[in-house]
Automatic annotation (TrEMBL):
The keyword Glycosyltransferase does not apply. InterPro entries: DEAD/DEAH_box_helicase_dom, Helicase_ATP-bd, Helicase_C-like, P-loop_NTPase, PriA, PriA_3primeBD, PriA_3primeBD_sf, PriA_C. This is Replication restart protein PriA. It catalyses: ATP + H2O = ADP + phosphate + H(+); Couples ATP hydrolysis with the unwinding of duplex DNA by translocating in the 3'-5' direction. Residues 544-698 form the Helicase C-terminal domain. Belongs to the helicase family. PriA subfamily.
DNA sequence: AGCACGCCGACT
DNA sequence: GTCGGCGTGCTC
């Protein structure tokens, strides 16, 4: 038998199957989708079997050298999905396959030295013999560190030793010892009498099993008895008193938490109205896409939960995608309470091992529901009954690295394979989605009212230019400051949002106007107060703050703009009594910090929660009655056609944070452009008004959803090379596309230089471009080919989410 | 991506 | 004469 293998080399020239012979001993075991190790040139690599066949065109085949899986890592559906993903996003097949699996299943390559076949340990130099005694191999690094390489070299020249590469899983399966008594109560008591009085620890263990005569994990036994190490147990096992068995176990991130089952909430009339069509689609196994369009607080999650319940009762599985930042303990708790241990959770807070274990639970069918961020869309379920994408409009569903996929597209693809419905949920759907719902491509389900009948909060817009003219130079308008003070006095909570981290956004010389910019990226650097450092948010460069202007030598250096740190500082001055929690990338980077801060706020340990966008999503605190947006326009003027849409969505989302419970809520939006439609309409919570307005503009400018777009970015350390190549690419495209396609460029990218690489781009807008795949593939081949040598990088993003 | 092969410059 | 620079091309 012959296997076609995609090898673990992400390069243009190796992005095709290579044929290998399957050794006789594995012919019954090997299956498509399994990971294997294969010799590739002088190396040994991981590869995926994509096809099994009887014969090969190729004459001198090598053998597959090892199996890494007992079950296919990718089942038939996922294997096919991988090919589709590679085609669709223009990425290498190997990258597509790896993206669908947990990082733990990537290859770990270890150089090692091994005894040549036919050699025995005693043939070696005496110094080396003990090292090879056990396994006949040793790690290359160990040999190097212990200065053994000269000896090893000698033996290698003689042919006694040889170099080999060990290929293994990056992550490993956790094994745990389980201990149980082999004797009954009587027997244990007898043994207790026979053990010497000095063996205190052994007696302690026996006494433990007298009280708990059941099998327990070793870790539990040790913890309960306060002893440490297996060495205490071993003699008892040897005497035949205890029995030990090593078994696989799962690392459980939520081990410490207990989740009490909760009751199914009664649905409102409106919710039931939305449930009906979903239930019917589920019943009829119809591949229908729903847009569940409901204001914040309208009870979308309960609809998800009850739809999933039906699926699970029928023995089918469900995938729920949630944006990374909304995957809060609150959200997890809600699912765990309803579905207990039938839920797997996948998010970035888990360790590699924990993610691997959740994946294995899914693959083995031990769980029926997955709640997770973007990559959970690849959950290896075999019988999917429903896929849900919450906060459908969120940008985090689009992966910005190599397989540049959108989870929504993958979900729709998988749903069509499984003949199951998809629910897209949002209070502010993306224009693309809402347009499709209006054209009946998706079924629109609307939830107009909040579950508890709470009115939407009252929103005030403050014109900061007026404030400025009125002599208020602080970052708080009078209105916001008054309201904030009032809340603090009343003991109610407020949320303040500013979508910028750091202290001030930039540092400028007032004498010559120089702005401190990153030497690698041509973007202004951000001042961070705590470390008293300038940071580049794109390449991560950190530098000290200049005392004098590096250009003109003037000491009139001033900090401009406002960051979360500066707001915190000013709040401290203006309202010394208010307790503030600041939440941004800097205070939440430590694992678990995010949760801890929110918990503190929830427990009422602070009056004000100050943060960046991350506080805008999904949080639900009963005591929050005021939401302040310090500067609504920060993201409005970015060179991206979606900036209005994103501003509208963000403002609508934060506004929804206020007054979700008994107390009525208020929102204050500060802005320098109060007349802008996305700010006006967000304050009125008028999604449909915004939709109409924005659609008109998109139509005028040939943007999605009227046109599809593809963005090609060329980067090179040399400006001329980058410009020149972008020019050639643009010319090529112009010559080959159909007349209805519009090609822009080449132009400097809005981020003209990142990490010392100059960036030029070319943009295409098209309605139907039958040649697109061929053209892009061709470009990828010609310019991606010698990427390493020429230093040129070409990135192709079909349907980009961020234009920069 | 690695790694070998291979063809031209400055050295024991 | 050789060691070593990195251009070119191959890996079943």
């Amino acid at each position: 038998m012959i296997a076609e293998v995609i090898v673990d080399v992400p390069a243009q020239q190796t992005d095709r199957p290579f044929d290998y012979r399957v050794p006789e001993k594995w012919s019954g075991m090997i299956q498509e989708g399994m990971r294997v190790t294969v010799p590739f040139g002088p190396r040994k690599l991981l590869g995926f079997v994509v096809k099994l066949k009887e014969s090969s065109e190729f004459k001198s085949l090598k053998n597959i050298s090892g199996l890494l899986d007992m079950e296919p890592a990718l089942n038939e559906e996922l294997l096919e999905l991988g090919h589709w993903l590679a085609d669709e996003t223009m990425c290498f097949k190997i990258s597509a396959f790896q993206a669908m699996l947990p990082a733990a299943m990537k290859a770990k390559y270890e150089k090692q030295i091994r005894l040549t076949r036919g050699m025995v340990v005693s043939d070696l130099l005496p110094e080396l013999q003990p090292l090879f005694q056990k396994t006949g191999t040793m790690k290359w690094d160990d040999a190097q560190n212990n200065e053994l390489l000269p000896l090893v070299k000698k033996e290698m020249d003689r042919g006694a030793l040889e170099l080999s590469i060990k290929v293994s899983n990056k992550g490993n399966v956790k094994k745990e010892k389980f201990i149980k008594p082999l004797l009954d109560k009587e027997g244990l008591i007898t043994q207790l009498g026979e053990i010497s009085k000095t063996a205190k620890n052994q007696r302690c263990i026996i006494e433990y099993f007298l009280e708990n005569p059941i099998e327990s994990p070793l870790s539990k036994v040790l913890k309960d008895t306060g002893l440490s190490g297996y060495s205490v147990i071993k003699p008892l096992v040897n005497k035949g008193i205890l029995h030990v068995q090593e078994r696989e176990s799962y690392r459980d991130h939520y081990e410490q938490h207990e989740f009490q089952a909760d009751a199914v909430l009664p649905l409102t009339e409106e919710q039931r109205g939305a449930m009906g069509p979903i239930e019917r689609a589920v019943e009829e196994k119809r591949n229908e896409t729903f847009l569940l369009y409901g204001v914040t607080g309208s009870g979308k999650t309960e609809i998800y939960l009850q739809s999933i319940k039906r699926i699970v009762d029928e023995g089918k599985e469900a995938i729920v995608l949630v944006p990374e930042i909304s995957l809060t303990p609150m959200m997890v708790t809600r699912f765990k309470r309803r579905f207990g241990n039938l839920v797997a959770v996948l998010h970035s807070g888990l360790s590699t091992g924990e993610k691997y274990d959740e994946w294995r639970k899914i693959q083995r069918g031990e769980v029926k529901v997955v709640v997770g961020a973007r990559s959970a869309v690849f959950a290896p379920f075999k019988n999917i009954g429903l896929i849900i994408i919450d906060e459908e409009h969120e940008g985090s569903y689009k992966q910005e690295e190599m397989p540049r996929y959108h989870a929504r597209d993958v979900a729709l693809k998988r749903a069509s394979y499984h003949h199951c419905p998809v629910i897209l949920g949002s209070a502010t759907p993306s224009l693309e989605t809402f347009a499709r719902a209006k054209r009946d491509v998706y079924t629109l389900l609307t939830l107009k009212s909040r579950v508890n009948q709470r009115a939407l909060p009252e929103v005030s817009i403050v014109d900061m230019r007026e404030e400025m003219r009125g002599g208020n130079r602080s970052m708080f308008s009078e209105l916001l400051f008054e309201k904030l003070k009032e809340r603090v006095e009343k003991g109610e909570q407020s949320v303040l949002m500013l979508n910028r981290r750091g202290h001030s956004s930039f540092v400028m010389c007032r004498n010559c106007g120089l702005v401190v910019t990153c030497p690698n990226c041509d973007v202004s650097m951000t001042f961070h107060r705590v470390q008293s450092q300038m940071k580049c948010h794109y390449c991560g460069l950190e530098e000290g703050v200049p005392n004098v202007c590096p250009d003109c030598g003037s000491d009139h250096i001033r900090y401009f703009g406002t960051g979360t740190q500066k707001v915190e500082e000013e709040l401290g001055k203006l309202m010394p009594h208010a307790r503030v929690i600041r939440m941004d990338v800097d205070t939440t980077s430590r694992k678990g910090a995010h949760e801890a801060l929110l918990k503190r706020f929830e427990d009422g340990q602070a009056d004000i929660l100050l943060g960046t966008q991350m506080i805008a999503k999904g949080l639900d605190f009963p005591k929050v009655t005021l939401v302040g947006v310090l500067s609504a326009d920060t993201m409005l003027h970015l060179p991206d056609f979606r900036s209005s849409e994103r501003t509208f969505q963000l403002l609508t989302q934060v506004s929804g944070r206020a007054g979700r419970h008994e107390l009525p809520g208020e929102v204050v939006i500060q802005t320098y452009t109060p007349e802008h439609y996305s700010i006006q309409l967000a304050s009125e919570q008028d999604y449909e008004g915004f939709f109409m307005r924005e659609m008109f503009l998109r139509k005028q400018n040939d943007y999605p959803p009227y046109y599809y777009i593809a963005l090609l970015t060329v980067s090179h350390e040399d400006v001329l090379k980058a410009m020149d190549t972008a020019d050639k690419i643009t010319t090529y495209i112009k010559r080959h596309v159909s007349p209805s396609t519009v090609v822009f460029g080449p132009s400097a990218s809005p981020m003209s230089r990142i990490n010392n690489r100059y960036r030029y781009q070319c943009l295409l807008k098209y309605k139907r471009e039958p040649n697109l795949a061929v053209i892009l593939k061709k470009l990828n081949e010609t310019y991606g080919r010698n990427a390493a040598q020429s230093g040129l990088q070409l990135s192709i993003d079909v349907n980009p989410f961020i234009m920069m």
